[in-house]
Design brief:
By secondary structure, the protein is α+β, with helices and mostly antiparallel strands. Bound molecules: adenosine-5'-diphosphate (ADP) and magnesium ion.
């Protein structure tokens, strides 16, 4: 007998994620009631994952649940915010129990890891599509914005960008991959880790921040443009993983680090006067971030190799390119 909508919500989504005392009414009533802490601002983000567009058709359901939440948590990390609550709008072709159970488990594990409660949502029938909204907090007037950078600020990135795009290529059979390195790269696409702890700490050091979802060069360019300046990234300074270099070679690895999407790392700028404090308080080796460039007076985002400007056909993954 097929699950009713009520049974489906009750079984898979009530109790999904963390239990929080600030949830006065969660899943089950017409709307959630949430208690907001004094002195904090509410930070809200929402992102949609469409089957076959943002993840390959037939992706592991646990990964779809994880990623739908992770991409939103990453947006909060980029603001320096701490997440608290999530809402889920789920459109499903059919109520398949094993799919739902793995999907909910994937989302719930990540939500619990970051103390996020699922407090509501909507469930509809149609082509697979997952929208998550996350709500979080930041102390008043202390959020990190894209627009706070200035020419002369140093630019950093966390992690090793490019890994997720290679992982996706392996998932789709566009890149051959076997063994430990391939498993690592696939994992970077299937289960990205939103950099929430780093984002919160950066409130005290960074002038601007953005999360890297469309490609490092493109997203650094968005930060620079919002800050009214340009950006230069040094090809030689890009952090690339051993797994990526082993899989595609040094050259292609650095190109993917600049243009590949889906990494959900943080790219941030720091005033020269705050650099010493950043490096002392948040040691780069421990926190996993690397200096990659500088914000500049002249507009635009450029990658420099041996001091010469590199050219790319596209400086990042553009969602609209897939629709032509
Ligand atoms: P209504 O018809 O009043 O919108 P629904 O039947 O859609 O009520 O939802 C009932 C309850 O279940 C609400 O609290 C809603 O927020 C929650 N809910 C529905 N779908 C989901 C979902 N996919 N994940 C989490 N909560 C959900
Ligand atoms: Mg509803």
């Amino acid at each position: 007998m097929p699950l009713s909508e009520f049974e489906l919500i009750d079984r898979f989504f009530r109790g999904c994620g963390a239990k929080r005392t600030d949830v006065r009414v969660g899943v089950g009533d017409d709307a959630a009631i949430l208690e907001c802490p004094a002195g904090m601002e509410l930070v809200a983000a929402m992102d949609t994952l469409v089957d076959g567009v943002h993840f390959p058709h037939g992706s592991p359901p646990g990964s779809v649940g994880h990623r739908a939440l992770a991409v939103n948590l990453s947006d909060l990390a980029a603001m320096g915010a701490r997440p608290a609550w999530a809402l889920l709008a789920l459109t499903l072709p059919a109520a398949e129990e094993s799919w739902l159970s793995e999907f909910a488990a994937g989302m719930s594990a990540l939500a619990r890891a970051h103390d996020v409660a699922l407090v509501g949502g909507d469930t509809t029938c149609g082509p697979l599509c997952v929208t998550v909204q996350v709500l979080g907090h930041v102390p008043r007037s202390s959020a990190l914005l894209r627009s706070g950078g200035r020419a002369g600020d140093a630019l950093f990135v966390s992690g090793t960008p490019g890994d997720a795009s290679a992982g996706l290529a392996i998932e789709q059979g566009r890149l051959p991959g076997a063994g430990e390195a391939a498993a690592y790269l696939r994992e970077r696409f299937l289960h990205p880790a939103p950099r929430l702890a780093l984002g919160e700490c950066l409130r005290l050091y960074a002038s601007a921040c953005i999360d890297v979802s469309d490609g490092l060069l493109a997203d650094a360019g968005k930060l620079a443009r919002a800050s009214g300046c340009g950006v230069e990234i040094a090809y030689e300074m890009l952090p690339v993983s051993q797994a990526l270099v082993g899989g595609v070679g040094e050259e292609r690895a650095r190109e993917l680090a600049l243009t590949g999407g889906d990494d959900y790392e943080l790219c941030f700028s720091v005033r020269p006067a705050h650099l010493a404090r950043l490096l002392a308080d948040l040691p780069p080796q421990r926190w996993g971030y690397t200096r990659i460039g500088t914000l500049t007076e002249s507009a635009g985002a450029q990658a420099l190799r041996g001091g010469a400007v590199m050219n790319f056909s596209t400086s990042g993954y553009d969602h609209f390119l897939t629709l032509t």
